[in-house]
Every structure is written in C-alpha cells, then in structure tokens.
Amino acid sequence: MGDITGEFFRNLLPPAQPKVDRDVQGSHPGVGWQGAGSLCRSWREVMKTSFQIKTLLCIAGVLAGAQGCTTLPEELSAPSRAELAEVLEPPEGIVVPDVDLLATTPEMREFVKQFAPNRAGELRRIDSLILALRHPGILKIEYDPSANFGAVGAFENRRANCLSFAALFIALARESGMDARFQSVEVDAQWERLNNDLLVRLQHVNTVIRGAGQKEHIVEFQRDRFNMLMTRRKVSDSHAEGLYYNNVGGQHLFDGDLASAKAYLLRAIEADSRIAAAWVNLGVVHRRADRPELAEVSYRQALHIDPENTVASNNLASLLERRGKTALAAQLRDHAIQQRARNPYYHFALAKHAYEQQKYDAALDHLDEAMRHGRKEHNFHHLLALIQHAMGDIEEAQASMRRAERKATNPQDRDQYRATLAAWSSDTQGT
To answer: With contact defined as beta carbons under 8 Å apart, do 130 and 141 qualify?
Structure first.
C-alpha cells in the first residue's frame, strides 16, 4: 500500500481493501465554495446566506481525533529525543520565508476604518466586513482552494481558501477591536473519493468571535460545509500558523519537491509540534527519500500525538510490512480498521458512492451502518430518501425527505429538501 499524506484540509483514508500498490499525495483543500447571493441585505438576511455567522475550522490538515479507548500496540512507544533530532534535521539550502498570517497593511487598516469602525455595534461590524469582503464592487474575495496566503496575501490577491479567509477576517476583526479566533471543525459527512481505492476526509477552519456576555458568533466562508452540530474547537494563532506551513509543505510533497516539503513541514512543527498531520507528511517525505527508519519515527510521533490517527496507522503499517515487521503491521491494520468502522461518516461516504454507482441495496446497507454508529443527521435522511426514490419506494422516500427537512438547521438545506418534495409530488400527480 502506498503512503497517505495527512493534511490540514484532508485526511486520506485507506480503501476497504488495505493492500493497494499506490502512492497517494495531496495537499489541496478540495472543497467547493457556494456564492453568497445578493450582498445588499440586512444583518438578519445575511444570516441566511452562504456566508454564515452563528451565535465554528475551515481547517486543512488532520485534527487530533476524539480520544477514545483504543490502545496502540505496546511496541509503538513515543520516539526518543535522539530519534526525533535525526528526523528533524533540516535540509540544506532551503530557506522558508516567514509569514505573519495576521499581519495588516495600511490599506487593510483603512478598509477597517471605512467598513467596520469601532463606533459601530459588534454585529454591524461583522455584517459590514462580510459584505465588503464579498461585494463585487469592493473587495470581492473569491474562493480558491490553492490560495495558501496569510491575511495580507488574501487581501491583495482577492483569493482565499478557508484558512486564509479565516486569517483575513480575524486580522480585520481584531483591527476593529473584536475578539476573533481561529476555530477548527470536523466537517460532517464530507468525504471525497479520489479514485476507486481511497477516500479523502475533508476538514475545515473558520472564525469565531466572542462578543458581549461571552456570546460567540461564527463567521463561515463555506456555508454548505458547516452546521452547529459539528465537532469544533478553538485553536491558537500558532496552531493556525502551523497549519499554513503544513499546507504549503503538503503542496511541495504533492509536486515531488521533497526538500522544500521537509523545510515547510519542519516550520509547521516548529509553530506547533502537536499537529499530527505535519508528522504524517514528514514521514511520507522520509519514506520517499528512502529513509524508512526516519519515516517510522515520524509516524510513531504522529500516533503519540493522536493515537486515533488512521492515516498514520496505515502508513506505518505499510512501512512495517516492507521492513518485515508483519505481526506489528497486522496489529496496526486492525487498529485502523476498528477506527474506521466506528466512524459514521466513512460509512456515509460509502453509501453515497454506492448510490452514485446505482448499487442501491449496497447503499442502503452502508447507510444503515452509518446511522447505527452515529447521529441520524439530515444528510443521512436526505441520502436515504434519494435511495428509496431511486428504488421506487416513493412514500418512504417522501417520509425520509421530510425527516431531513425537519432535522436541517440551515434554511438553504430546508429549501432544497422542500423543493425536492414538491418536484416528487408533481411527478406523482402527473403519472
């Protein structure tokens, strides 16, 4: 099985059949952006648009998983200082430029004075900043998954991915006197199939603003990637900086530039050594540089940080197999399979793929498994309705779609489900 890179925006998970002779690379936050619609709206109306502010991480990279009771094999102890020192030896001749994610320019400060002056109320300032950032006649920030910038780069290039947009909004909000922070979010049910052999798990970062009375407002660049039930946590500026360097390092890894990839990944670890994704990517660099002993240390460190990191488990298992440690590799494979089997969104992704392949019985089986392991969220009921409708179970499909509508927290989701129900009803009446 080939290596799998762990990234800020993606976790690349293993296929159902763990033995695949393939290298997997990637560092793009492969998530699409949906437009905000008309921007000349009141604050209440803006709450219903693709930009969402709620009382949230468009993060890239691997978040530390929820710590459960799963135990790693005893042989996988934390690396020693001597082992880590060798792994962290910097490459020669590569200088990584410093990037201040939250720096501002005179133009940015003037932008804040014009659109979010301190004298305005907090919600009005948030509203005004969002409108100004997206309005075609003002800044018109466009979503670009490859736009790995700090706040200044996003402002000047008018492009941002979710991390760089969060950096831009936080920099402007702080300039306006608001308490703005990065927030990481595990995006429910957002997996993407790169090919027939593997799935990509998407994750996200956004902005949270703490207002009066400890009330929190969430600024979301990609409305369709977030709901309030998602697992989320605030992260430090240094953590976000590490995610930035990890993203750039992942891109160099994707491009095959191992020296630059390592240099950026070391900067990510320097910013925040607890980012498991950076250690996973560093392991991939060492493995491809034909230093399997250093790759093993990197993967072990990733697992020491996050014992439930399936990417690290599978990469290390593949490495151990190549080094003849088959028994330990088998334990790691079992560990990864157990983690994956408990994840409802993995089963949801399999159900969605089966539905797209018109394998409806298999899709139902996967979706049943997803619902058995997790919350019965509106996405699950929506997919169930589509499967049932495709199988000709019209009444059951309508009932499932109504459940999806009731469970949806976002007005656009509810509108979509209502529209589908109306179309189905029209089709039924016409036959």
So the answer is: no
Please answer whether residues 208 and 180 qualify as being in contact, where contact means their C-beta atoms are separated by less than 8 angstroms. yes
Whole-number percent of the chain with pLDDT over 70? 74
| DSSP one-letter code for 15 | P
Chain segment 201-232, per-residue pLDDT in tens: 456 789 989 877 767 888 877 655 554 445 56
Closest CA to 406 of 373, 375, 427, 381: 381
Pairing of strands 179-195, 232-235: antiparallel
Structural contact between residues 7 and 317, judged by C-beta atoms closer than 8 angstroms: no
The pLDDT score that the predictor gives to residue 98 is 93
Cβ neighbour number for residue 216 with a 10 Å cutoff: 15
Give me the DSSP letters along 80-143. Answer: PHHHHHHHTPPPTT--PPP--TT---HHHHHHHHHHS-TTS-HHHHHHHHHHHHH-TTTT--EE
CB count within 10 Å of CB 69 equals 5
- 275, 47 Cβ separation under 8 angstroms: no
pTM of the model: 0.70
What is the secondary structure of 314-332 as a DSSP string? HHHHHHHHHTT-HHHHHHH
Q: Tell me if 352 sits within 8 A of 386, measured CB to CB.
A: no
Reading the block at residue 109, the tokens are 């400060």
Where residue 365 falls (left for φ over 0; alpha for ψ -120 to 50; beta otherwise) is alpha
d(CA 209, CA 207): 7
In this structure, are residues 319 and 288 in contact, taking their beta carbons and an 8 Å threshold?
A: no
pLDDT tens digits for 373-427? 766 688 899 999 999 999 999 999 999 999 999 988 666 678 889 999 999 988 7
For residue 23, which phi and psi values (nearest 5 degrees)?
-90, 140
User: Among the listed ranges 191-195, 227-231, 271-275, which one has the minimum average pLDDT value?
Assistant: 191-195
Q: Are 271 and 241 in contact (CB under 8 A)?
A: yes
Q: What are phi and psi of 137, to 5 degrees?
A: -90, 0
Residue 233: predicted pLDDT: 82
User: For residue 31, how far is the Cα from the chain centroid?
Assistant: 8
